[in-house]
TrEMBL record:
This is Transposable element. Residues 3-95 form the Reverse transcriptase Ty1/copia-type domain. Pfam families: RVT_2. InterPro entries: RVT_2. Residues 94-114 are annotated as: Disordered. Residues 103-114 have a biased composition (Acidic residues).
């Protein structure tokens, strides 16, 4: 797993925290996100700006508990326009098999320090 992504599991449900400079993205169930936010607020001054909709040129949308969509179509359109390739034809690129994150065991309550 990437060095800027941390994972744990509570009650069999995974939680992922991605760190980028001074920003965090927390992925998990609503209850587990709230748990992590409360633990972080107990140790640090943080600001919750709500659900992520755009991150590193990726557009992100989701239906809670059902689906997550990530797209770079807006960024790709911008790059194609910059290089005069707006009329090029797209080609399907399926995700490689086996790129799923490793499972993590249930964790103790609280944020673990490395």
């Amino acid at each position: 797993m990437d060095g800027g992504i941390y994972a744990r599991s509570v009650g069999g449900s995974p939680i992922f925290v991605a760190v980028y400079v001074d920003d965090l993205v927390i992925v998990g169930t609503d209850e587990n996100i709230e748990l992590v936010l409360n633990e972080l607020q107990a140790k640090f001054q943080i600001k919750d700006i709500g659900p992520v909709t755009d991150l590193l040129h990726m557009e992100i949308s989701y239906v809670s508990g059902q689906a997550l969509w990530m797209s770079q179509s807006g960024y790709i359109d911008k790059v194609l326009k910059r290089f005069g390739m707006e009329e090029c034809r797209p080609v399907a690129t399926p995700q490689a098999l086996g790129n799923l994150p490793e499972t993590v065991e249930d964790d103790e309550p609280g944020v673990n320090d490395p």
